[in-house]
Amino acid sequence: MKLLTKPHTSQRRLIEILRVINVSDKPIGARAISDELSNRGYEVGERAVRYNLKIMDELGFTKKEGYSGRTLTPLGKRELSDALVDDRIGFVNTRIEEYMYRSSFDPASESNRAVVNTSLLDKRDYERAIEIMRRVFDAGFAVSRRVLIQDEGEEMGTLQIPGGFLGISTVCSITLDGMLLRSGIPVNTTFAGVVEVKNGVLSEFTDLIAYAGSSLDPMRVFMSRKTTQVSEAVSTGNGWVLANLREIPVAAIDQAQDLLDRAKGAGIDGLMNMSEPGEPNMGCPVGAGKVGIAFCGGVNAVVAVEEQGIDIRTMPISSLQDYGRMKELR
């Protein structure tokens, strides 16, 4: 049949779903498939997974096992083995570039679309989680203190918020990359990493993962490793937080600095660090003729929530949001 051999987005999505079903040791349902796809760097909501499963049922690739979920048919296994299995090297960079292009942030505008990270939080943990997030915002360890809180049943990107949960969107630093790009400044997000905080100040990177050639979101990798101490950095001034580094041309320093200063007036007020031309930024390498700009990760507030034992599921760089709907958490 060979319907999955062309490397289009829809075909790649179907292939990944087949792969998830194939490695499961029992029938697997749409929600579990969606969660696993998210772990692999694909943000596909449960509803979209159900739609794709229906297509694969009709093609004869999958078989529904009652209410337990799906398994692969012999035809599905053969299709998977013969299909063009994309290794997704560079997938994360491509996704970042897409969101940079689709976002629109102008400090002087009232109509902005920000790139956001989205989280699901049990309603019973709301008050405690919000207080933890406030403290992280106060310390400056996030891109912005603006958040959007949505109730169960509402749509959050491609995800419908399940019963008993709240959806929380936080501003992602890719929003600023999009702002620089739309102002004519070439920008390249190069590394994600863990930055040591000393006396409340960003000190140096202690761990780095390059975005180029990565098949997994580095931020998600660091979050799963639990290598941060955001709560400690907030309470004592010493700890480890997540940050991104991007490069811009030396010739664009003044323009970039002006944009970033004006962005603070629009609610982008997290800690950042700009290197000297061609010099490492807090120990992170920067190319010749470039300047490195480090921003604290937009996920640090929800990472701190997780550090305190609260169950919260976070998807970095997950969707675009009307910035005007997001309110400052003070």
TL;DR of this structure?
With 330 residues, the protein is of the alpha+beta class. The protein is built from 11 helices and 14 strands.
Instruction: Please report the number of helical segments.
Output: 11
Overall shape: globular
SSE pattern, N- to C-terminal: HHHEEHHEHEEEEHEEHHEHEEHEE
Fraction of helical residues: 25-40%
Structural class: alpha+beta
Distance between the termini: 57 Å
Estimate the mean pLDDT confidence.
89
Total domain modules: 2
Given this structure, which CATH class of the largest domain is correct?
Alpha Beta
User: In terms of per-residue confidence, which ranges show pLDDT below 50 for 5 or more consecutive residues?
Assistant: 1-8, 84-88
Strand-helix topology:
Layout: H1 9-23, H2 30-39, H3 46-59, E1 62-64, E2 70-72, H4 74-82, H5 91-102, E3 113-122, H6 126-139, E4 146-150, E5 155-156, E6 159-160, E7 165-171, H7 174-182, E8 188-198, E9 201-210, H8 218-225, H9 230-236, E10 239-249, H10 253-264, E11 272-274, E12 290-296, H11 300-307, E13 312-322, E14 327-328
Antiparallel strand pairs: 1-2, 3-7, 3-13, 4-7, 4-14, 5-6, 8-9, 8-10, 10-12, 11-12
Helix pairs in contact: 2-3, 5-7, 6-9, 6-11
